């Protein structure tokens, strides 16, 4: 159950604590359930860069995470689309398998860009995750996923992803009509950035590598806590 933290931390509120994090610090990258205040996805990550222009974080292989599953434990992607968003869910602890993911997000932008590699650091693709602009707090960033995504290949070609899920989310009321129009507008803006090969696509992040001395972040017991104040 999500707990509400209404008291300042160490005498300071979350606005004071939402500073720029230093490389190597551990924070939480979280998503709320659509239309709710309850966190249902939590991924501990390591800060790569954090400034006025960009937040970059690394999610290492083997990272302990929280993700939603159906009450019987079925992963949502294995449930038929017709009932995927209507059956009851619960939060489940799991582990990030496969290679790690580098996540890049510009303040106020309604998407983040993720980089995926094959084993042996062969770059696979960029992934544009359309989402609510992230809210910073003392322990990390919170957002809401908007279902629709884009995949960008190394040759700069791109394609929409999860259009069927985006449509279904609208049908069951998880995305309101006005919000859906905003998501599509954000997607078209991301496409323009891709076709112009703007930052961060042009910045060489596919050649980035994590510090070998970094440890895998732990999943805190209060991973679902509500920040005292959102920045």
Automatic annotation (TrEMBL):
<dbReference type="Pfam" id="PF04167">
    <property type="entry name" value="DUF402"/>
</dbReference>
<protein>
    <submittedName>
        <fullName>DUF402 domain-containing protein</fullName>
    </submittedName>
</protein>
<dbReference type="InterPro" id="IPR035930">
    <property type="entry name" value="FomD-like_sf"/>
</dbReference>
<dbReference type="InterPro" id="IPR007295">
    <property type="entry name" value="DUF402"/>
</dbReference>
<feature type="domain" description="DUF402">
    <location>
        <begin position="79"/>
        <end position="198"/>
    </location>
</feature>
<dbReference type="InterPro" id="IPR050212">
    <property type="entry name" value="Ntdp-like"/>
</dbReference>
<keyword id="KW-0378">Hydrolase</keyword>
């Amino acid at each position: 159950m999500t707990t509400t933290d209404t008291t300042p931390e160490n005498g300071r509120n979350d606005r004071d604590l939402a500073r720029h994090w230093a490389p190597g610090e551990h924070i939480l990258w979280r998503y709320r359930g659509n239309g709710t205040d309850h966190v249902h996805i939590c991924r501990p990550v390591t800060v790569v860069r954090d400034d006025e222009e960009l937040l970059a974080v690394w999610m290492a292989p083997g990272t302990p995470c929280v993700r939603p599953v159906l009450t019987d434990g079925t992963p949502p992607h294995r449930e038929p689309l017709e009932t995927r968003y209507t059956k009851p869910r619960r939060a489940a602890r799991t582990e990030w398998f496969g290679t790690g993911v580098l996540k890049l997000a510009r303040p106020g932008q309604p998407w983040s860009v993720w980089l995926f590699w094959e084993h042996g650091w062969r770059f696979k693709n960029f992934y544009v995750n359309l989402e609510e602009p992230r809210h910073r707090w003392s322990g990390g960033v919170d957002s809401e996923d908007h279902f629709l995504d884009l995949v960008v290949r190394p040759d700069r070609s791109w394609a929409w992803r999860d259009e069927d899920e985006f449509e279904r989310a609208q049908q069951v009321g998880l995305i309101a009509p006005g919000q859906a129009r905003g998501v599509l507008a954000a997607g078209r803006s991301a496409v323009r950035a891709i076709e112009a090969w703007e930052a961060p696509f042009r910045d060489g992040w596919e050649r980035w590598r994590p510090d070998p001395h970094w440890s895998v972040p732990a999943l805190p017991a209060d991973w679902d806590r509500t920040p005292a104040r959102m920045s």
